[in-house]
Amino acid sequence: MTSHTLSYYALEPVRRVFRLALLQWFGLSKWHLASAENKPYIKDIVAYVNTLPYQSVCELGCGLGDILSRLKMPEKYGFDVNPRVIRVAKILTMFRRAKATYAVLSVTAENLPSLKTDVWILVNWTHEIEPAELRSIVQNILGQHTTDDGCLIIDSVPPGIGRYQHDPGSLVAGMECSVCRLGGDYPFDRALYVITRGERPVQST
User: Fold this and answer.
1) Exposed, middle or buried, 65 (CB in 10 Å: 0-12/13-18/19+)?
2) Of 59, 124, 144, 191, whose CB count within 10 A is highest?
3) pLDDT reading at 31 higher than 70
4) Residue 182: is its pLDDT beyond 70?
């Protein structure tokens, strides 16, 4: 067992206690308690995005910043509808010695950040959005808020897990985009996809 592994197991109880204390202090659900190390899909997103030669990333529905705080890009933006979640995200990101800009935002097709970034991340909430609305959100992001060769990462879950199951291809119907599966098999049959502007193929990890 490496020293890095030993350090992780030694610090993990401290991380969980600190995280739980923050959740209780800010009145947030224990749903947020699980760390990124226990969520394989987060590991795959981070590993993939950190290989990209880009400068900027924006995550809508960023939660506690578990993804953003692990990305290496110099420009990182996170938005969430819950002000208390954003406050905890700022604390945890600082605790990880990382930097990101966070703000409160209720996302709709007409209410998107006034940013143009290389990568967008929309995971763990899109299954609650009606298909037509999500299609408008995704197409607005890719059409107006993404750099020319940028991409968007989105997830999908099967019926019974979320209210809606989305086909990533249908979300970008009529647009010049390529769609590729990212990562492997996850709990609850979650699937990750990378949607890239243009026809450049995207390599999955």
Assistant:
1) buried
2) 59
3) no
4) yes
Q: For residue 194, is pLDDT > 90?
A: yes
Average pLDDT over residues 95-109: 93
The predicted pLDDT at position 18 comes to 65
97: region left, alpha or beta (phi > 0 left; psi from -120 to 50 alpha): left
d(CA 171, CA 138): 7
135 touches 164 (CB < 8 A)? no
Consecutive H or E run containing 92:
helix 83-95
Find, among 166, 162, 77, the residue nearest to 119 by Cα. 77
Segment 2-26, tens digit of pLDDT: 443 344 444 556 666 766 776 677 6
Residues 68 and 65: their CA atoms lie apart, in Å, by 5
**Strands of 191-197's sheet in order across:** 101-104, 75-80, 56-60, 117-122, 146-156, 191-197, 177-182
Q: How big, in percent rounded to 5, are the helix, strand and coil portions of the chain?
A: 40, 25, 40
Beta bridge partners of 103: 79
